[in-house]
Please model this.
Amino acid sequence: MGIRDRASLQRLGDMGIEVWRLRQPGSFKRPPSVEAGDADCRPRIRLSSGDGDWLLVRRAPWRGSHEALVADIMATIGPERCRFGQWSKDTSSGEGIDELAERGIKHILCFGRPENPPDWPQLMVAPALDELAGDPEARRELWRMMSPRIRR
Model:
């Protein structure tokens, strides 16, 4: 049983509820608002603590692993300049690149390669924290990547 009257569809739309419609027998198609290439499908980051111009991002939530390493990275950048975030799996949650810039974020340091890395000039993809903790060459590469941007 499907919803067919316009008033019901409009009410659901006003509440932000997406309605999937059968386009061909046996297949569903996403509503136009989430079609590939649409702005709503762009990567997003959920922000957590902090309010600086550097955003430190991971795919998984922060669980305190490698706390000393993260503290050293923050001390190098300046703790007041750091905030944290996590890649969003949902296209309706988090902040897009434009919203991040509006919040004053100038540099995004991602630990570990994101699934679909966006083409953002602010984005620096560093090795995962596990690799940084165990590999001095990975830490040197991180420093080479960050050092030109630290004073900005």
Observations:
- The chain has two domains: 6-39, 43-150.
